[in-house]
Design brief:
Radius of gyration: 18 Å
Number of strands: 0
Number of helices: 9
Oligomer: single chain
Length: 186
Amino acid sequence: MFEQLTQLVQQYGGDAVVNNSAVPNEHNEAVIAETGNSIFAGLQKIASEGGAEQLAGLFNGSTPIDNSNPVVQQITQQLTGSLGEKFGLSNADSSGVASSIIPKVLNSLVNKAKDPNDSSFQISDIIGAIAGNSGQASGIMDTISKYGMQFGLDQNADGKVDVADVMVITKSKGGISGFIGKLFGR
């Protein structure tokens, strides 16, 4: 997943980094790499700090992916600090790069993950990559359970979304990726 994310950052890095006079040309590649690292690390940090609800909102489209989105804000702050520290960019220049590129990359990531005709990103792969350990995955599963009723995931009509429902969906609809895909509208 990290490679695909880096490709998205490179795709959207033209205006924010390469064509930006505030970023010295010799730092373009490193700034793009740092941006990819910050996005990935930021998503992991949000998942590890119990932000599964924020991530679910990001991926199911219930919150706009712009500079007012809490996930975008957190990753933008992290990248702004990192660009200033590692590349000597002013806070205004670092913030400009981050606030320009983060929403575009996350929008593209979410749209690709939700597009049934685009297999470059799978929701299940993204969650697996950012969730890491079972405690984080459990937190995301709790969020899935919370929102699962809204998405029609109660497969056995017992009034809750739990492992039994996951088993029904995974056996009949393409494994765990089918379950997560159904959660996020794929």
